[in-house]
Amino acid sequence: MKSRIHPVSRPVVFRDRAAGTAFLTRSTADSDRRVTWEDGRSYPVIDVETSSASHPFYTGGRQVLDTAGRIERFHRRYGTEAPAAR
């Protein structure tokens, strides 16, 4: 590995505001804000909108897609006739 071409990796706390959880990991990201972790040390903290604690794929939540409505809206917008149902 070449020296001095890789970014510095350091411990960072990522905090998911939506789920109210935080986790400590290593990252090259840095922040001016700091938080005291469970071990009593101070680490940079980065707030994220979504993590595995709040993402519907990991939590089992489902997002309902109205595909039939989208197709009908497409046909109305572009003037094409919807195919007949069999």
Major sheet: arrangement of strands: 2-1-4-3
Query: How would you spell out the order of helices and strands?
Result: EEEEHH
Please tally the helical runs, counting DSSP H or I stretches of 4 or more residues.
2
Separation of the first and last Cα atoms: 63 Å
Q: How many domains make up the coordinates?
A: 1
Mean pLDDT: 82
**Biggest β-sheet, characterized?**
4 strands, mixed
Q: Please identify the structural class as seen in this structure.
A: alpha+beta
State the helicity in percent bands: 10-25%
The number of E-state strands comes to 4
Report the uncertain regions: none
Alpha carbon gyration radius:
23 Å
Q: Based on Cα principal axes, name the global outline.
A: elongated
Report the β-strand fraction as a percent range: 25-35%
Family: Belongs to the bacterial ribosomal protein bL31 family. Type B subfamily.
Organism: Streptomyces drozdowiczii
Keywords: Ribonucleoprotein, Ribosomal protein
InterPro entries: Ribosomal_bL28/bL31-like_sf, Ribosomal_bL31, Ribosomal_bL31_B, Ribosomal_bL31_sf
How would you explain this protein's 3D organization?
This protein is α+β, with helices and mostly antiparallel strands. 19% of the residues lie in helices and 28% in strands. It has 2 helices and 4 strands. Strands 2-1-4-3 form a 4-stranded mixed sheet, with no helix packed on it. A hairpin with a 4-residue loop joins strand 1 (10-16) and strand 2 (21-27). It comes from Streptomyces drozdowiczii. Keywords: Ribonucleoprotein, Ribosomal protein.
